């Protein structure tokens, strides 16, 4: 019987050795799999944090867009307030610009029988009031002015067109 039990013991140790060998063989894969699962969990957490940050930024952007719209309205109201108090000279310049595009000061001055410097001053004020815009069509012409949408609206609302 001792021989049978030692054979059984020997077979049991072979089985245990075989299982141990399988565990050793599978250990790197199991360790690698655990490492990958940990990395996936970490990346998932980071992704969730980034999604939360993106939502926060979207809210900030929406708030800033609302603020920009409010400031634009305020600026337009301020410009229109300035426009309400225009003298006849300003009105004459606006009316002249209705019929011409990109007019330099040397074109406007003789038509309104005013000095060019005075015309430049008035045009600067009209530009501050956002009723005219300027371009630079060429170097020899300098600034050329034209009536913009606000200027047309102003003249229309005042029934000056």
Summarize the structure in words:
Helix 3 (105-112) packs across helix 4. The protein has helices at 2-84, 88-98, 105-112, 116-128, 149-157, and strands at residues 103-104, 132-138, 142-147. The radius of gyration is 41 Å and the shape is rod-shaped. It has five helices and three strands, in the order H-H-E-H-H-E-E-H. 77% of the residues lie in helices and 9% in strands. It has two domains: 1-85; 86-157, Winged helix-like DNA-binding domain superfamily/Winged helix DNA-binding domain (Arc Repressor Mutant, subunit A, Orthogonal Bundle), CATH 1.10.10.10. With 161 residues, the chain is mainly α.
Beta-strand residue percentage: 5-15%
Shape: rod-shaped
* Helix/strand order, N-terminal first: HHEHHEEH
Main β-sheet description: 3 strands, antiparallel
Rg (C-alpha, Å): 41 Å
Widest sheet: strand ordering? 1-3-2
Mean pLDDT: 84
Helical fraction equals over 70%
Please give the number of β-strands: 3
- DSSP helix count? 5
Ranges where pLDDT stays below 50 over 5 or more residues in a row are: none
- The helix/strand class is mainly alpha
The structural domain count equals 2
What is the distance, rounded to the nearest whole angstrom, between the alpha carbons of the first and last residues?
124 Å
Defining key terms:
161 residues, mainly alpha, three-stranded antiparallel β-sheet
Draw up the topology in text:
Elements: H1 2-84, H2 88-98, E1 103-104, H3 105-112, H4 116-128, E2 132-138, E3 142-147, H5 149-157
Antiparallel strand pairs: 1-3, 2-3
Helix pairs in contact: 3-4
């Amino acid at each position: 019987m001792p021989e049978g039990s030692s054979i059984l013991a020997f077979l049991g140790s072979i089985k245990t050795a075989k299982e141990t060998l399988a565990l050793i063989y599978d250990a790197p894969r199991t360790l690698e799999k655990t490492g990958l699962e940990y990395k996936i969990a970490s990346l998932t957490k980071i992704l969730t944090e980034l999604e939360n940050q993106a939502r926060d930024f979207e809210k900030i952007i929406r708030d800033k867009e609302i603020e920009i719209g409010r400031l634009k309205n305020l600026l337009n109201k301020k410009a229109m307030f300035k426009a309400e108090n225009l003298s006849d000279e300003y009105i004459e310049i606006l009316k002249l610009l209705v019929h011409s595009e990109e007019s330099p000061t040397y074109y406007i001055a003789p038509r309104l029988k005013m000095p060019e410097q005075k015309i430049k001053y008035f045009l600067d004020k009209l530009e501050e009031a956002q009723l005219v815009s300027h371009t630079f069509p060429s170097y020899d012409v300098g600034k050329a002015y034209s009536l913009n949408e606000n200027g047309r609206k102003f003249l229309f609302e005042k029934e000056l067109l």
